[in-house]
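Handout, section B. The chain below has 394 residues.
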Amino acid sequence: MNKGIIIIAWLVLLTSCQLIARTHTSTQQNYQATYQPLLDKLVSEHIPGAVLYIESEQGLFLGSAGYKDLQQKQPMTTDIVIPNGSAGKKLTALLVAMLAQQRLLDLDAPISRYLDKKLLGQIHHSENMTLRQLLNHTSGIVEYNDVGDYAFFKAQYAKQNEVTTDEFPLSFALNQDAEFKPTEGFSYSNTGYALTGVILENVLKAHPASAIRSQILQPLGMTSSYSKGVEDHQPALASGFFINDEEPDFPIPMNTWVDMKQIIGTTATSDAPLASSVIDMANLLRAIVRNNKVISDWVRNQMIGEQYLVASSGPRFYSASKFRYGLGVWVEEIAGKKFYHHGGTEFGYYTQNIYIPDGDVSITAFVNCGVNSRCESAFQDFTFAVVDSFLQIR
């Protein structure tokens, strides 16, 4: 080959690489200029601190604002690990789908295959329930948080120095009327995931945490994630703050910020199993949606395949969207654009976790407050602004 042609080709390649680098740097600067002010504005007397992670084909943003400790006024850092609440449901659902592929479970078999008659007799319509229905919220099983007057939280608060597993929240839903017969409706229920956790423990002969670590966390390189309560909290769990400014009869005093780390950190349940960083959470949802070597196409299809999605209600981003639920993941579609998400609240914590295939966009955000209307409303508005900056539907 002529040396002149080689030199020209090399110069063209070099110029292209420089152009890509300049474009990437420009996008990084635009992300910083766009999202850091939004993050700074989010912090208020109702939201102590926040973290935002965005990664796309065009660039990356990782920022924080406010405080991670209210007493010592320590600045928020981007590497914090928090309990992710219901955003962790995708982890439980993913493990179940993986075990189903390994023929250790059957998503569509009656749950009576995995549970004893005594327990089944305390769950209405259990003879017709399947694991898939428990995971996609069509089983009709009652929500344990709705039983009694804050009965579950009061009991959880009293047990804050003990590790509680799935049988604990499940006990509040036993012998309660069902919302409907299986498949006759959709009703979001943490109880379905707690019951799934009991099934997993029966099948695995151990808490699901070890299988989650070996089959999901380690293969995906989620080094800042763990099953809270039953695994070492390394990195340490960040503080999360709750203020009771609405309910005089609640077990926590009125108008006092309380660090909920100890209470939430001892709950090892399958409806909210995970503590994670923003980057790990983003990588988990992305791995569920996009092809990779850890999660098979069969598992992915069970979780978010079109034929398995059910009509849903819940925290959609756009009121006019087509809104459906798979296994641990919401699938929202509007104006021909599809995206995936599942947030999660705990007392003192709130996670939003979104993935948009168009542009390979991951968005994960944390605030260290939760189960408070002022905190949650502002955080939802913030997250919507970030999502819409990519989808541009509004």
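Note. Confidence is low (pLDDT under 50) at residues 19-23. Compare this with the example in section A.
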